[in-house]
Amino acid sequence: MRLLIVEDEIHLAEALVQILRKNNYTVDASYDGEAGLDNALSNIYDLILLDIMLPKMDGISLLKAIRKEGIATPVILLTAKGEISDKVIGLDSGADDYLAKPFATEELLARIRAMSRRKGEVLPDNTLKFGDIELNTSTLKLCTDSKDVKITLKESELLEFLILRKNTATSKESIIEKLWGFDAEVEHNHVEVYISFLRKKLTFLHSKVGINTVRGVGYILEVQS
Ligand code: CA
């Protein structure tokens, strides 16, 4: 999962980035509303943590702007104590949840897990299932009923992306944007390398799941018959 944090309290933002990275999320941070809007509009995020009081553009305006563009990324508002009316406005403006500052790390992580479950495929304990495989994005373990193998964070992110887009061909460009971010100088063959790592691990597991190449388009995750 790729998360965006929009928070102008640098210390809080940096602490959040560290905690989330430790929990195997890919995280970007923006420190004002305009930068946050730019990032959010790229539509590469699975979840946005959004502060309300921000320089240049406040969180509620940012939220309205992305919803107006049809971006449905779940948003958790980070509200300061006592901003009850902000909470109501926030939920009315298209936020999915809110968390009052200061909050405990465990609560934040629980809310994030709940939010990703709401999207459908992510089971409790951060596991995703597809065909005969189960991917645990916390422990970085990929398994079938009989075997398991450790995978790297990037492999896990790639496989998660393919699982969530199941039955849809995924281009190398969108994989690069998702895994490395917008401005990354990553070549197409980088993606090919990670795809081949994953294929080797699926073969090792004797899984029926395969990553098929769709000529001129990209990759698709399929259960081979
Ligand atoms: Ca703030």
Give a description of the structure.
The structure is a single chain. The mean pLDDT is 88. The protein has two domains: 2-118, Response regulator (Rossmann fold, 3-Layer(aba) Sandwich); 127-223, Arc Repressor Mutant, subunit A, CATH 1.10.10.10. The strands form three sheets. A five-stranded parallel β-sheet has the order 2-1-3-4-5, sandwiched between helices. The longest helix is centred in the C-terminal third of the chain and has 17 residues, at 188-204. The chain is an alpha/beta fold and 225 residues long. It has helices at residues 10-22, 33-41, 59-68, 84-92, 105-118, 153-164, 172-180, 188-204, and strands at residues 2-6, 26-30, 47-51, 75-79, 97-100, 122-123, 127-130, 133-136, 141-143, 148-150, 209-214, 218-223. The chain is built from eight helices and twelve strands. The structure holds calcium ion.
